[in-house]
Amino acid sequence: MAVIQFIRGINEEVVPDVRLTRSRDGSNGRAIFIFDNPKTLAASADQEITGMYLIDEEGELMTRDVKGKFINGQPSGIEAYYVMTSENDWERFMRFMNRYAEANGLGFTKADS
Fold first, then answer.
1. Which of 11, 52, 75, 99 has an alpha carbon 20 to 30 Å from 41's alpha carbon atom?
2. How many CB atoms sit inside 10 A of residue 15's CB?
3. Could you tell me which residues come within 8 angstroms of residue 60 by beta carbon, excluding any fewer than 6 positions away?
4. With contact defined as beta carbons under 8 Å apart, do 63 and 50 qualify?
5. Residues whose CB is less than 8 angstroms from the CB of residue 72 and which lie 6 or more positions away in sequence, other chains included
6. Which run of H or E residues covers position 44?
7. E strands along 1-113, which residues?
8. pLDDT tens figures, 76-95
9. Does 62 score more than 70 pLDDT?
């Protein structure tokens, strides 16, 4: 089990585009999640989005750096940023992403340097 939630108890069904960056020495990194037309936007009419929660069998990773995208005043997407400040944070994040990828039939493509 590996899920992403913006509202606790409601799993986001839309699979995001995820972009990763990492420092050369591995001491920190950042993941950018881009959700186009996420289901959470329709469900959030009476509930506020307070963060992005990455949940798996090890526990929960969380970020409050979440921004809505709007087109003509209508919600169209969500961007969320997850920052890793140590090698342990990076390894934990990658374990979550491997589980999430497996649960959603995703693959990983490494960018050319």
1. 99
2. 17
3. 53, 54
4. no
5. none
6. none
7. 2-7, 10-11, 17-22, 29-36, 52-56, 59-63, 66-71, 74-84
8. 999 999 999 999 999 999 99
9. yes
Q: Which amino acid is at 69?
A: K
Burial class (CB in 10 A: 0-12, 13-18, 19+), 73: exposed
Report the distance separating Cα 66 and Cα 51, nearest Å. Answer: 6
pTM higher than the cut 0.90: no
Q: Residue 102: what are its φ and ψ, rounded to 5°?
A: -65, -40
Note the pLDDT tens digit of each residue in 10-45: 999 999 999 999 999 888 999 999 999 998 887 656
**In the numeric block, which tokens belong to residue 57?**
């069998």
Sheet holding 59-63, edge to edge: 10-11, 2-7, 52-56, 59-63
